[in-house]
Amino acid sequence: GGEGEGEVGVDGDGATKKDKNSDDAAVPSVDLLDYEGCFSVSISDTLHCLGFARDADGDPDGALEFYDLALDMRRDLLGEDDLRVAETLHNKGAILCEAGECELAMECLDAALVIRTRHHGDDHESCADTQQWMGNVMREWGDLDEALEYFKSALTIKKRRLGDDHDDVADTLHNMAVVLDDMAKYELSLAAYREALRIRKLNYGTDHMLVADTLQCMGNVECVTERHEDALDHFRQSIDVRERLLEREGSGHAATDEHDPFVVPRRRSLDESRAQLEKLIESYEEALPLNKLLHGNDDADVAHLLSRMAEVYSDVGDWDNAVGSFQGAIRVHKANCAPAASLNGGGDGEDGKANGGEGGVDDDLDVATLLRRKGNVHMYREEHAAARDCFEASLRARKRLLKKDREQAALVASTQYAVGAAEHESGRHPEALRAFGKTLRLLRYAHGDEDGGQARMGDVLHWIGRQYDSLSEPPKARAQYLEALKVYKSCPPKDRDDRAVVRTLHLLAGVHEKMDQLSMALKIYNEELRIIDDKLDGDSRSAADALFNAGNAYAKKRDFANAMDYFERAGQRMETAYGRDDERVAICLEKLGILYAKRGLNDLARDRLTEAYELKEKVNGRDHVETATTAFKLGCVLDKIEQSAASMECYRESLRVRRAMIGDDHADVAATLFRMGENYAGRDMHDDAIRCFQEALTIRSKLFGDNDDMVAATLHPLAKAYASKNKHDKALVFYKEALRIRKANSSDGPDGKELAEISFDMGQSLENKQSYRSAIEHFGEAARTWSEGGHRHRNLPSALVKLGNAHEGNGEYDAASERFAEALGVL
Q1: How confident is the model at residue 41 (pLDDT cuts 50, 70, 90)?
Q2: Minimal CA–CA distance to 715: which of 749, 685, 751, 739?
Q3: pTM confidence score
Q4: Virtual CA dihedral for 294, 295, 299, 303, nearest 10 degrees?
């Protein structure tokens, strides 16, 4: 490994990491060996790595032994002034600093700095790293002024070499802030912490343990300077970050868990998680007295902090403090409850009292929950009588609350339902899903097995399905819609809402369509139509939507006859529901026009698309993207019936609007230019065709990259346009590029249709250049493809004749005769 490898990074205390001089691969544990006579640079490197690994495993003494071996070997092999020697000295000095061996640490670090400065100059990151550790040593030694100078020097180098926003800069600022705090220079300390916090948030985001550490340090300084509000705010932020991190790692407590399985041995956190939990406890213990000082002992935030502390104490197995914190939280919650009838008289006990048994428990859900959790802790301590007292008190409170709360639950559910609907309309579907889930639980709680809430439960299930639908989870959406239909159908006749059934069926069919289960989707659409006609008096709007979607499903199945029938009926219902001048009617007409074109009924397609265009122009205006889309489709149909001039007018109008509304570099603009190019080429206006194809090519290359099939599809007609102008050299350039892309992408299907067409056209340009041998190769490739594929009788004779011509031009008359005879046989 080279100098400096492994130096960038941060240990838990914000100091720069030691140099490891190796990859991060795991190093097996080995015993010290007799290295006498085993001298090589690679062995010294391995010893250095073993030292690093031992240090990382928490064995500093073993690390020092390996570093000493590596240092002796490196000095013998490389000399006192080698950078590898500096690396080992640096790491050894760092370990000695952490062990409190300040004098020995300073000797190693000073020697490392001399070597690094001699090789790199005094403005190198490695010099800054060593100076930062020297600052740590001076702080341990108590020489704060000298420590600050080392940190300042390291900071200057790191900013110059790494930039102001590098995480190493934040580490040095953090260390400076600690020293300034020790020197009672609190304003300067806070300024350094703030800058470190800014950089760490920039590099790591808000949820990182180093961010939490910096916030807590800021709070400590603000406590000393009696800025209690600011201190409490920073402590709270630090707590929030630590809790989120622990929850994300799966090692935090579940504050809402109502089923703590105390009969199963409690899971213990890993050492790393335990360290994080202990830091979180430290943050709680800093924040709690501040909260009491600022807001009083009975503030709701005090209860909240105590309950959270109790959970974390439980996570680390500190049962005494867990019981005491739960007891304190219960006392504060009860002090904040509205007066209510107690379940059995008696006092509450003192804040922090660590024993079981409860008295004077008010009818409050939070108190009941805390009692249950406190009982769990007593179970872990095997204090079963105290646990039983807590559980029984919690149960009595819950039973009394249940009678009161059921009446309120339905009202809360109504509000929660409105929250879910608002989240849905805002496009916040995960939030809406949570809100509707809460609504469903409240309704089930409020109504139980009674019939009164079934219709509303069906509505909530319907909305849950819609959230999964919006989140692209069709199987989950289908399950919720089916459950909603089941609930609707179980409602008494007087409560049954047929419109709700129709709405849910409509969405259920759409989910099946998304899952390509088209037959099932059509079955559901037809069931929806039956209910609309039988139960809703043939409601035109609902029927129009169902008919339109069923038409789309038939079109996907390529059942064009049924698709056209359903679109015709959908258009009629839409006219009845919305009037003739409505965009939905225009969309139906457009769908019909496209289907007529697919069936080769181009005159009917033209008529329907013309109606659709005129109606969209009337409803949306001429300068609307949807109007431009219909103009484009009409132009395509007019091209098919050889009304080229009229088609070009449609394309120009579509191009004008699309460029104005969606910009020049859009795929739809490229598609329009491409069609215009084909139109011009069909009328032998090759210069105009080339211009349009070139513009389309530029856009598609920019959007899709130079190797996309859309680019190849544009290059081919562009080459043909140049060939039509007898510019065969230019044409061949584009043919070759199109052929390369098609072959690379292998996207042509089993008959290689696109490859064959390009090869055939390329052969014609080569024939015109009298490059007969190359022409024979390309005509032969096209003939082979067409003799195997589904285009045999249409294209193969032409390829064989061209192949014969090329053989004839090359003086190969027998081969030419064979190809002509073969073409005649195919014909």
Answers
A1: confident
A2: 739
A3: 0.50
A4: -10
